[in-house]
Specification:
212 residues; mainly alpha; two-stranded antiparallel ribbon; 2 strands; 7 helices; single chain
């Protein structure tokens, strides 16, 4: 039998996989650069679909409902001994959220890079970059910060925030596809992306750290 935590993880993985299927990569590979460093991250990322607000809300609500039903129906199994969790220190929290903040504000971050690619009319590059950004930025950086949350009530909301970022990237990706190129749509979803990431950054203030 799977534990409740394992079942929830499987459900969220399937949900994320469903979201990721909305991305269409270009024929070229785009290499991600960490802001203000020379490190390159070649990751497989996702992009956003031009889904309506209703579709977006319905998907997130359905995912939450499935997760809740699983919790209620899963048989409790004995817990195995686990390693002690890493202490959540202010330094750890600041580092995780600063990484997100840099991609929103740095000249070579995700937001600025997408802005430049869109303004330059590089639709094929936008398609590839949005696909990569879901793994590198949303799943990697936002996912890491989300795991540091100490308020249980906010953890579910944080998952929805993370999924919203995926929808934004898919929207930009769809507006960049051959025959569907639409700069206005690209910029619309880019603006929503910025707002959604700023909401994620607000979670930093809710985390209780061990040294405070």
């Amino acid at each position: 039998f799977y534990t409740t935590t394992t079942m929830i993880s499987i459900i969220l993985l399937l949900a994320t996989t469903a979201l990721s299927s909305g991305f269409v990569p270009s024929s070229r590979s785009y290499v991600h650069r960490c802001p203000n460093t020379n490190i390159q991250n070649d990751a497989s990322l996702v992009t956003t679909t031009a889904l309506s607000a209703t579709s977006r809300r319905n998907f997130l609500t359905t995912t939450s409902t499935i997760a809740t039903a699983t919790i209620l129906s899963t048989t409790t199994t004995p817990a195995y001994a686990k390693e002690a969790p890493v202490p959540i220190t202010r330094e750890l929290v600041t580092s995780a959220f600063d990484a997100i903040r840099l991609d929103l504000t740095a000249p070579d971050g995700v937001y600025s890079t997408l802005t430049n690619l869109i303004n330059d009319g590089k639709f094929e590059d936008v398609m590839q970059y949005t696909k990569e950004s879901d793994a590198y930025f949303r799943r990697g950086k936002i996912g890491k910060a989300r795991k540091l949350l100490t308020d249980k009530d906010l953890k579910g909301e944080a998952i929805q925030m993370s999924n919203a970022v995926t929808f934004d990237l898919i929207g930009i990706n769809r507006a960049s596809r051959p025959g569907k190129e639409n700069k206005e749509e690209q910029l619309k979803y880019l603006a929503v992306l910025k707002t959604d990431v700023e909401r994620v950054l607000e979670l930093e203030a809710t985390i209780q750290v061990v040294d405070e």
